[in-house]
Each structure stands twice: as C-alpha cells, then as structure tokens.
Amino acid sequence: MSARLERAAFHAVGTSCAAAVTAGPHDARRARAALAAAQAEVALCEGALSRFDPASDLSRLNAAGGEWTAVDRRLVEALRLAGRAREDTGGRFDPTVLPALVAAGYDRSFEQLAERPARRASGWRAGAPIELDEPAGRARIEPGTAVDLGGIGKGYAASRALGAMREAWPMLTGGLVDLGGDLALWGETPEGGPWRIAVADPRRPGTNAGVLLIRSGGVATSGRNVRRFGPGGSLHHLIDPATGEPAQPGPLTVTVVAPDAATAEAHATALAISPPAAAAEHVAAHAAISALYIPHEGDPMQLGALPLAWTRIVVRAAA
Amino acid sequence: MQRIWTVVLAVWAMLAIVAVLAWSHRPAASPLPAAAAQTLVVKGANGKQQLVVVQPGAVGAPHATTSASGVVR
User: Fold this and answer.
1) CB under 8 Å to A116, separation ≥6 — which residues?
2) Partners of residue B67 in chain A, C-beta under 8 Å
3) Is B72's CB within 8 Å of A51's CB?
4) ipTM over 0.90
5) Could you tell me if residue A289 is inside a domain?
6) What digits encode the pLDDT tens for the residues A133-161?
7) A254, B67 in Cβ contact below 8 A?
8) Can you spell out the DSSP letters for A145-195?
9) What's the DSSP call for residue A137?
10) Interchain proximity B68–A223, CB inside 8 Å
11) How crowded is the C-beta side of A152, counted as CA atoms within 13 Å?
12) B61 near A196, Cβ under 8 Å?
C-alpha cells in the first residue's frame, strides 16, 4: 500500500483552511497528531494576530495608546516580518494601514460588513514605526496608529502550522497548510514529485488558470475579485499606502511564489496594488519571488522564474 | 596459388573479426525520450481553441488551490 495524503479541513482566520501530510499505511495516528498540531497552531496565531478579536494580542497593542505592551511571541515575530516586508516592498505593503482600511469601511469581519460609503482616514500617514523588544516579548506603536496583519498573517500562520506539524511528527516527509488559499509547502508528496498547486482563474470562477509545481516554500494570492464591500460592492480591501484609499491600479489577482508563505503573502499584497510595469520591476528586483499577474483585461504576465506547469491562458513573460 | 588463398582467408578472417566487433559494440537501445512538455489543444468555454502547455509532473489532481481571500480575523 503506497503513501497517501491525509487531510484535515477546518474553519479559521475567517476562511476555509486545510492541512495535509504525506502518510504511509501505518501512519494514521501520527498523521492525525500532526494535523491537530497544525490546527492548534493556527488557532494560537489567530488569537495573537486577529484585529477582529478584542482580546487578541494585536487588539491589545492597538488599544494601548502608545504604551509598551507584552504580547505573544507570535505577534512579535509577525511584526518583525511585517516591518521587514514593508522595507522590501518599498512601503507598498504596510501593516499600519489599518486606520485607512477602517475608514474605507472594512471595520469588522467581512461577513458583518455594512453597505456604506468609504471615507478617507483623517491624519493618517503611511510608514508609522513599530517598536519591538523581542527579548522581553513587548511591542509599542505610536498613539493613533493601528496595525493590521491581514497582508501577512495568514502566510505567517501557515508557516507556523507547517512547523508545528513537523515538530509533532519528526519523521514527517511532507505536508502543506492551506489558509484560505495562502499555502505553506514542504517535503515529499505521496507520489514523490513536487506539490501541484492550482491557481484559481479569477476570470472564470470555478476553473483553474494553471498549475504550479513546487517542492517547498510558500504561495499566496491577493486580489480584488473577492471580499468586495461598500455600496454595490464597489470597494475592496486593498489599501494603497501612498493614498490611504482602496487602490485603483493593479491586477484582478496576483499569485506569488516565495521561499515562505509570509513572504509570498506580503509581496502578493504589494503587487496587488501595482500596475503591470511596477509589478514586473518589483519581481525583477527580488530574485527569490516569482508571480502570475492576471489583469482585469489583456494577457496575464508571468513574472520571474514561475514554476508554472501548465496554463490554460496566454501568459506573456515580462521583459 | 597458395598465396592467393592465404590472402583471401586473411581478408575473410579480418571481415569476420570486424563483424564480431561491430556486433558486440553495437549501440545500446536508446532510452525512452525524457518527459517533455506537451501542447494540447482544448476548446474554451467560448468555443475558441486554446493551447495548453503541459510540463512533466503536472499530471494528476492538484494538491491544493491558491486563490484570493480576505484578511486575518
């Protein structure tokens, strides 16, 4: 009897999630333990990083009025990664974009959003500092500032959950964690080859635009084809830090492949508010990432060394 | 006359040796061609034909799908 993929589906971080491990015929108990560890780690990450849970560490930090706040080490680490991603993306990913996001109307979990017009956050500015005291497990942000980890949190949690599976089952040979389409992948598939990751086609819902072949790393997709809100669904959750308003230019969706899921998600967030030329320039400047950029109209672009196995659409490689 | 026969036998012997060597050193059967990308023609929903380039290893159902979703909550 050959290896198979043991899978567990669950709901977390406001979306559908799954974890899966490559397991042999006698590994059922170890596989269940690993999958449970992944789910538990995602719950811990959500408890630390969610801005919709008033008791979360992030909510406490946002409400601390500029005071140093003791927070879970996951939040400290996620804030450090977010700060680095802000530098790497030239500010196109900015975790301090929350006041603008709330002003735009995205002030509660997506399922509870009301139909109301967007506003612009008064006095908000991009790039607010985030101070970390990692040895003491503390963080501080300026009064009036607020942090949202929506552009990196799922990827971070997916990577953590994958690590938790490997810790729970040291002999694990391969696994993946999927948090609403943001993926962390590692090791062998049951078939022995790379992981086959379908890219959903935003232009033809229910179909795939292509398949990526990935041995290890992270994949994330960001876009404005879902999670629209406001009058007539006219708004989306992608705020341009340069303007503080929902971004105007940018693709319908962009999928990024990176060495880890948090990096993939942060760069996908940045590319999702980038016009094609800027996106191509961005990927060219970051050798570790590649992307599939699907605009509203016209040819999709393959940016960087994308491990695209097949595509149903015409893909134009960026110059 | 004997000299002629000697030459003929020598030639035949040399040809036999060459034949044996050629047979024993014949090239091995060429391996199966390495898996290569294939281009398939499929009919799209709008009736137009599309080209689908399939790389080796892409066969089989995907293990997961990436798509846009929302923010951490």
Assistant:
1) A105, A230, A231
2) 180-181, 199-200, 202, 221, 226, 253
3) yes
4) no
5) no
6) 999 999 999 988 899 998 899 999 999 99
7) no
8) -----TTTHHHHHHHHHHHHHHHH-TT--EEEEEETTEEEEEE--TTSS-E
9) T
10) yes
11) 28
12) yes
Token pair 């909510």 in the structure block, residue: A59
Total of domains in chain A = 1
Residue-level pLDDT at B29: 44
The full set of domain ranges for chain B reads 1-26
Is the backbone of residue A232 left (phi > 0), alpha (psi -120 to 50) or beta? left
Nearest CB neighbour to A194, from listed B42, B57, B72: B57
Residues in A closer than 8 angstroms to B65, CB to CB, are 178, 181, 197-200, 208
In a domain, A180, yes or no: no
Residue A69 lies in a domain: yes
CA distance A209 to A189: 22
Q: Could you report the average pLDDT of every consecutive run of 10 residues in chain A (319 residues)?
A: 90 95 96 98 97 95 95 98 95 87 64 54 75 96 91 96 98 97 96 93 89 96 71 61 73 96 96 93 96 90 90 70
The SS3 assignment for B34 reads coil
Q: Which two tokens stand for residue B61?
A: 């159902």
Q: Beta A195-200 vs B64-66: how paired, if at all?
A: parallel
CB distance B66–A193 less than 8 Å?
no
User: What residue of A is the nearest CA neighbor of B45?
Assistant: A204
3-class DSSP state of A303: strand
Element (DSSP H or E) covering residue A294: strand A290-294
* Structural domain contains residue A293: no
Give how far Cα B65 sits from Cα of A16, A212, A293, A306, B68, Å: 12, 10, 16, 16, 10
Sign of the C-alpha dihedral computed for residues A133, A57, A83 and A78 taken in this order: positive
Phi/psi at A54 (nearest 5 deg)?
-60, -20
Which of chain B's residues have a Cβ under 8 Å away from the Cβ of A106? 71
The residue behind tokens 């969706």 is A253
Domain boundaries, position A108: 57-78+86-141
Are A241 and A94 in contact, with CB atoms under 8 Å apart?
A: yes
Report d(CA A13, CA A33) in Å as an integer. Answer: 21
Query: How far is residue A94's CA from residue B50's CA, in Å, rounded to a whole number?
Result: 39
